[in-house]
Amino acid sequence: MSIGVVVFPGSNCDRDVRWAAQGCLNIPTRFLWHETRDLNGLDAVVLPGGFSYGDYLRCGAIARFAPVLESLVEFVARGGRVLGICNGFQVLTELGLLPGALTRNRSLHFICEDALLTVESNRTPWLMGHQRKDALTLPIAHGEGRYQCSDETLCQLQDDDAIALRYVNNPNGSVADIAGITNKTGNVLGLMPHPERACDPVIGGVDGRGLLQSLLG
Ligand SMILES: NC(=O)CC[C@H](N)C(=O)O
């Protein structure tokens, strides 16, 4: 049982994910350089937060062409589990594995603070350790976290029960207070908050543990 953490030039939460998964939760973790195509033996893959390719063009727009992501698309099609955190969520929307887009925060400022969230769906394995309407506090740190999609996509997300997490006090202008969504089949989750920064009690809170624990199904 092990998970992979993709490393792009500019990723900066790859080590945080490894510390949270391996250091705090004993989940064997291996780094995946963006040029690799080898995902053999992995139970799940994390796309971590950061500033891949310096956030040029749009966050995630260049990372989307990395060789590792060709293998990731096949991995997802076979039912493999993928968690995209912050920049990872941005990459997943650019890649088309999740619908919609992450755009500049309504304030046009980078926001770095704790966010109160509610669990909207526990249909997928990611949040099965939680009840609907459970409250979680997780840190956010982003400049482009405003989730937007068409009305049609929003209806589809609602029909599919694919809205995983919502903000209680919407910090960035996301449509319908959306903080995280899954794909229709539920094996891909993208979220702007950082669960890996809420796994070690030393840094103030363990509300992210359930999400990372569910990487192993
Ligand atoms: N913490 C992060 O992953 C940052 C995400 C992204 N680069 C942004 O600023 O929106």
From TrEMBL:
* Keywords associated with the record: ATP-binding, Cytoplasm, Glutamine amidotransferase, Hydrolase, Ligase, Nucleotide-binding, Purine biosynthesis
This entry's Gene Ontology molecular function terms read: ATP binding; glutaminase activity; phosphoribosylformylglycinamidine synthase activity
Its Enzyme Commission number(s) read 6.3.5.3, 3.5.1.2
Report the main location listed first in the record: cytoplasm
Q: Which reaction does it catalyse?
A: L-glutamine + H2O = L-glutamate + NH4(+); N(2)-formyl-N(1)-(5-phospho-beta-D-ribosyl)glycinamide + L-glutamine + ATP + H2O = 2-formamido-N(1)-(5-O-phospho-beta-D-ribosyl)acetamidine + L-glutamate + ADP + phosphate + H(+)
Cellular component GO terms held in the UniProt record = cytoplasm
* Pathway(s) annotated for this protein in UniProt: Purine metabolism; IMP biosynthesis via de novo pathway; 5-amino-1-(5-phospho-D-ribosyl)imidazole from N(2)-formyl-N(1)-(5-phospho-D-ribosyl)glycinamide: step 1/2
Instruction: Locate the active site.
Output: C86 (nucleophile), H194, E196
Entry keyword Transmembrane: no
Please give the biological process terms from Gene Ontology that the record holds.
'de novo' IMP biosynthetic process
Q: Where in the cell is it found?
A: Cytoplasm
> Assembly and partners?
Part of the FGAM synthase complex composed of 1 PurL, 1 PurQ and 2 PurS subunits.
Functional note: Part of the phosphoribosylformylglycinamidine synthase complex involved in the purines biosynthetic pathway. Catalyzes the ATP-dependent conversion of formylglycinamide ribonucleotide (FGAR) and glutamine to yield formylglycinamidine ribonucleotide (FGAM) and glutamate. The FGAM synthase complex is composed of three subunits. PurQ produces an ammonia molecule by converting glutamine to glutamate. PurL transfers the ammonia molecule to FGAR to form FGAM in an ATP-dependent manner.
| Name of this protein | Phosphoribosylformylglycinamidine synthase subunit PurQ
Q: Which organism is it from?
A: Prochlorococcus marinus (strain MIT 9303)
